[in-house]
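User: Here's a chain of 269 residues. Predict its fold as tokens.
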Amino acid sequence: MEKIAFLGLGHMGAPMARHLLDAGHPLTVWNRTPGKAAPLVERGAVLADSPADAVRDADVVITMLATPDAVSEVADAIAPELRPGTCWAEMSTIGPEAVRQLAACLGDGVTLVDAPVMGSTDKAESGELGILAGGDADRIEGVLVHLGTVTRTGAPGSGAALKLVVNTAVIGGVGLVAEAMALADALGLPEDVAKGALAAGPLGGAVARAFAQGVHFGSDLAVKDIALATGTTELPAMEAVLGHFEEAAADPSLAHEDIARAVARIRER
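Assistant: Prediction complete.
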């Protein structure tokens, strides 16, 4: 079994790491807040003191971190420690340009696969994520299948690029549903009637996500993803959506809450 180092044990990373441990892989974990690793350590994982210590003997490295800056900081620590033959699956949402920068800092014989995921915490818990794998994923696919279904997207960076496209559509759809519901409120329509009509139409999936419970994708992370998208090309509609989620992320009570909470804020405005 491949020795795996898993870095980043947030809402998504912790259940993903647990699936790999349950599959029998020797697992070393690291998280900026060490206490979050306790449930995994109780199940047999080894807690590393630093990212460098975590990856030193690993065959496979997986990073699941919140922001491009966090990934870059960890990359600076682990790149010198990665042995030839190591495969690094970068599963955060950081965009293709950041993936190219990571690849440029790696030594000979180290393979980088960009493999961001589709699905929220419920899919991470059940092992049913959609994994968008860019680059040479042959070596690592047998590991990734424990986390969900792997879709090959093409050249290095293509997984990260497609994830931006998918998240732009999802977050944009949620923002549009929120504004449609604000219009329904202004017109005096009952919420269940308006929501039911929208759910029966082409925005049905976005309606479900806008009112979802038991999942987690923070408004602060939505801002990060929209900013990556709008920084790539001109997206006027998404610029407006960005404003909505920036306002929600500026509220400490909403910043780290699921984007469904931001829908109520948009309607109130």
